[in-house]
């Protein structure tokens, strides 16, 4: 496995997805490079979330979905028969738009995933929990209330807890579907700061409606329109000199 920065960790070729008769993704070719932040932008309904969820096979859960084309993770077809989907989702974790902590303690939220995957002694679990919470910049705020319910945290804290929970099973990639859209500006800033730290260790893919956010945090930016990948490139370049008129219209606010 190649873990060097700048190598494709996920690649799609001709990825097409149908919900019944409806073609939601139209032959997407994309390379996601490791230890970068890639942002997906585009108007509502253009397929960003669909594409994101296809990358760790979350779409398997949706009835009537048909997927054609190829998705590889470290060069291996994620749809191959011998791929364990639980393993894939451990390697490619996900954080949702709305923070969804489990109705249990802060500690148990983090310990939940590691417990599923292996038998871990208490002292080691304490360390996993602390590291994950530190990694998500939440430790100092919760270290004295680890046994309290996660549902008592603020929205921004809950979202950082979900990021910590995703990190606790040691993924390589973290998918984030509009992770800050339900948060206030201060919490949003915390999560953005956190993401720039995360990319030292993980590959991050984020769907965002916030163009300033994409410009601030991402290395690469992909613009989607009605199921098509219109263009993708270094974020500075996409924002300063978009190659496609449709990208330009979107980022200058002419539509969407
Ligand atoms: N489970 C589903 N069944 C049928 N159609 C769906 C399903 N999920 C999404 N779609 C359709 O697929 C298209 C792409 O949806 P998707 O949620 O991927 O877009 P999006 O770009 O992420 O939108 P948004 O920014 O509003 O979240 C939309 O037309 C949507 O209505």
From TrEMBL:
SMART domains cross-referenced by the UniProt entry: AAA
Domain ABC transporter, chain residue ranges per copy: 10-251
Record-level GO cellular component terms: plasma membrane
Keywords linked to the UniProt accession: ATP-binding, Cell membrane, Membrane, Nucleotide-binding, Phosphate transport, Translocase, Transport
Membrane topology classification: Peripheral membrane protein
Domain of life (superkingdom): Bacteria
Gene3D superfamilies attached to this UniProt entry: P-loop containing nucleotide triphosphate hydrolases
PROSITE patterns associated with the record: ABC_TRANSPORTER_1, ABC_TRANSPORTER_2
Biological-process GO terms, alphabetical: phosphate ion transmembrane transport
GO molecular function, one term: ATP hydrolysis activity
CDD domains for the chain: ABC_PstB_phosphate_transporter
Subcellular localization: Cell inner membrane
Chain's role: Part of the ABC transporter complex PstSACB involved in phosphate import. Responsible for energy coupling to the transport system.
NCBIfam families named in the record: 3a0107s01c2
This protein's name: Phosphate import ATP-binding protein PstB
């Amino acid at each position: 496995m190649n873990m060097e920065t700048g190598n494709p960790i996920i690649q799609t070729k001709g990825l097409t997805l149908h919900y019944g008769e409806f073609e939601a993704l139209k032959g997407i070719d994309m390379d996601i490079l490791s230890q970068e932040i890639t942002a997906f932008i585009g108007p509502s309904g253009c397929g960003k979330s669909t594409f994101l969820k296809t990358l760790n096979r979350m779409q398997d859960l949706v009835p009537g979905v048909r997927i054609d084309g190829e998705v590889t993770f470290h060069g291996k077809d994620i749809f191959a028969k011998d791929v364990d989907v639980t393993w894939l989702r451990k390697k490619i974790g996900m954080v949702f738009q709305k923070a969804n902590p489990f109705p249990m303690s802060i500690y148990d939220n983090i310990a939940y995933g590691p417990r599923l995957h292996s038998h871990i002694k208490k002292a080691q679990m304490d360390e996993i929990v602390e590291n994950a919470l530190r990694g998500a910049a939440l430790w100092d705020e919760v270290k004295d209330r680890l046994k309290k319910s996660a549902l008592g945290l603020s929205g921004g804290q809950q979202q950082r807890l979900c990021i910590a929970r995703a990190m606790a099973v040691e993924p390589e990639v973290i998918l984030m579907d509009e992770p800050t859209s339900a948060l206030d500006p201060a919490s949003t800033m915390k999560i953005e700061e956190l993401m720039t730290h995360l990319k030292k260790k993980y590959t991050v893919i984020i769907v965002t409606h916030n163009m300033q956010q994409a410009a601030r945090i991402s290395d690469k930016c992909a613009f989607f329109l009605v199921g098509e990948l219109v263009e993708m490139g270094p974020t500075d370049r996409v924002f300063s000199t978009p190659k496609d008129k449709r990208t330009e219209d979107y980022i200058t606010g002419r539509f969407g």
